[in-house]
Amino acid sequence: MNEAYRSGCPINLTLEVLGDRWSLIVIRDIMFGNRRHFRELLQNSEEGIASNILADRLKRLVERGLLSREDDPSHKQKGIYSLTEMSIRLVPIFAEMGAWGRRFMPVSEELSIRAQLLEEGGRPLWEDFMEELRVLHLHAPRDPAKPSVFDRLRAAYLEVVARNAAANAAE
Amino acid sequence: MNEAYRSGCPINLTLEVLGDRWSLIVIRDIMFGNRRHFRELLQNSEEGIASNILADRLKRLVERGLLSREDDPSHKQKGIYSLTEMSIRLVPIFAEMGAWGRRFMPVSEELSIRAQLLEEGGRPLWEDFMEELRVLHLHAPRDPAKPSVFDRLRAAYLEVVARNAAANAAE
DNA sequence: TTAAACCAGTTGCAAAAAACAAGCAGTTGA
DNA sequence: TCAACTGCTTGTTTTTTGCAACTGGTTTAA
After folding, report:
1. Could you say which residues 76-115 of protein chain B have a Cβ atom less than 7 A away from any atom in strand C?
2. What is the pLDDT of residues B110-153, one digit of tens each?
3. How far, in Å, is the CA of B58 from the C1' of nucleotide D10?
């Protein structure tokens, strides 16, 4: 019943919905890691989110329209979480946050290669990626001629992982 | 001494520094409202920040390099808070957050006119604005030929405020 | 058919952070 | 000299976070 916002400022309102240490992490994992189930989000979490926090954030994000939840037809207990148009449009914010983090924070190569591609690709790439996310999460029709940005980001990430694993094995 | 980050992901690292409900609000007020003293930030706060939270955030942001603090020569007790290159480079993130907030959240006209201009102006305007912030906060040399983005944002805001005040008075 | 593994969470508790209200000592200007 | 102003601090309550164990149901494989 607490629908009173602190102010009508767009920055503030964005912060009131996303301004905590976990909400964007959850959306990031769904968006870039294509994790769609509770356990996937919990167990593959790079940052080690706790199950109660994850449950709370998923609930809140669904309530606020940033995620949707459907039952998985293949398993009675599984739920499938999907992005909505609202969260798909966070791509530019993620891209800018990634660029800023890469410039000023001690990022790891493996985890920042995707941010680098997103930064270099610029807005046209972001638009392609958002269109792909709509196909993946909103059941929008797919243009089969277009190469997948998602696959490109994933391939670049796996390449760095493999290269570093090989370098470590050689030591 | 808790310098252990949760992960080396750029998104996560950005969130670890800025992912709370007040840090970006404080930077926003310094950046767009040109509030440079503690009391200015406290008393003009649209969202009503508490003094202990403000003190804590200012301290943290200075420690992490997002703000700098100098003594005000005109008043022995006053401190002047300034943006750093690190926080000036948040302009694109603010612009994207503003655009997202405007699209999806119940923003007020008065407080979103600046976000609108920033969105419409795009990256060239952001660059101009960042250059101006460097003049204002980093003592960088000013190009006198360039019209001030800061003044344009401020004028647009005051115009909306005045228009709405006139409309209310006429009722 | 039955046991083990898997599923999405929940519960209880301690610690940390946020929110609120009041107060403080030094500084300034009249 | 005194009121107003300065950047905070202190004490208390409330809320959020983090951790670990647990729950009731489902699926899988022997």
Report:
1. 76-77
2. 999 999 999 999 999 999 999 999 999 998 888 888 888 999 99
3. 18
Report the distance separating Cα A157 and Cα B152, nearest Å: 42
Task: Give the span between the Cα atoms of B44 and B171, in whole angstroms.
Answer: 27
Question: Closest CA to C11 C1' — which residue?
Answer: A52
User: What is the percentage of chain B residues whose pLDDT exceeds 70?
Assistant: 98
Q: What is the pTM assigned to this prediction?
A: 0.92
Is residue B130 within 8 A of residue A42, CB to CB? The reply is: no
Q: For chain B, how many residues are written? A: 171
Cβ contact (<8 Å) for A13 and B103?
Answer: no
CB contact under 8 A, A107 and B24: no
Residue B95 carries which side chain, given as an amino acid letter? A
Single-letter residue type at A114? R
**The CA-based dihedral angle spanning residues A159, A162, A164, A166, taken in that order and rounded to the nearest 10 degrees:** -140
Find residue B81's DSSP bridge partners. Answer: B69
CA atoms within 13 A on the CB side of B59: 6
CB contact under 8 A, A100 and B106: no
Q: Nucleotides of chain D within 7 Å of a protein C-beta? A: 5-11, 16-22, 24-27
pLDDT tens digit sequence for B22-62: 999 999 999 999 999 999 999 999 999 999 999 999 999 99
d(CA A37, CA A72): 9
Nearest CA to B17 out of A16, B26, A46, A126 is that of B26
**B8 vs A contacts (CB less than 8 Å):** 106-108, 110-112
Contacts of A86 in chain B (CB under 8 A): 104
